[in-house]
């Protein structure tokens, strides 16, 4: 049937052309964003899974930052402990020299002044060994705690080490001197005990840093794996999308031509009236 009111061929051609244009728009969006699932309307289930995984990745970033801060805090404490250990070695040398019974008074006084300067330097180091408002060597806090899981339910803790003078680790007192041969002789044993204590504390702090570092490496691997999983779910395959784009562009051109042919069909009716 020939009619000018209804052109079924043109209507069909237009439907296919619209469908092709819609598919072309989807492919172009995937190429522009690099994502096959950019939003919930693309695939609600996959988008929800990807968003949950992105939330975990964000949590792992916070965990990594927490662990990095804790590592830096403990490393500052270790640096302080190492400096104190070096000072104790120098103090032992001064005490040994002052313990010599044949030493004259002037020399002993000079050694004692050096000893007191080294002793006071320990207090200065302890007071300044702070990072991020944490000081793990001056007895101002009991421990440093870092996040260990993306939901915050798990944590890692490293205890402090009190390296203040006159404490249980550093048994050298704030008033200790080597002003006499007897005091110097006694101080040698005190310093040797303190040196062993400080080195043991350094070992504990180093083990704490190792805990933080191992957890940090593990968290980074988890985050990398999670990001790879997100990519597998939502990333577009550019090779596939490129092939689709070319095919749809050809279909679009053919659709336009088919619509033009269908629209010209009613003109055949004019021949009936010549």
Q: How are the elements arranged and paired?
A:
Blueprint: H1 8-33, H2 44-98, H3 105-128, E1 143-147, E2 155-159, H4 181-234, H5 238-264
Antiparallel strand pairs: 1-2
Helix pairs in contact: 1-5, 2-3, 2-4
Notes on the structure:
The mean pLDDT is 91. The protein starts with 7 loop residues before the first helix and ends in a 10-residue tail after the last helix. 68% of the residues lie in helices and 4% in strands. The chain has helices spanning 8-33, 44-98, 105-128, 181-234, 238-264; strands at 143-147, 155-159. It has a two-stranded antiparallel sheet. It is rod-shaped, with a radius of gyration of 39 Å. It is built from 5 helices and 2 strands; from the N terminus they run αααββαα. It has 274 residues and is mostly helical. It folds into 2 domains: 8-34 and 237-273; 44-233, f41 fragment of flagellin, N-terminal domain. Strand 1 and strand 2 form a beta hairpin.
In short:
This protein is mainly α and 274 residues long.
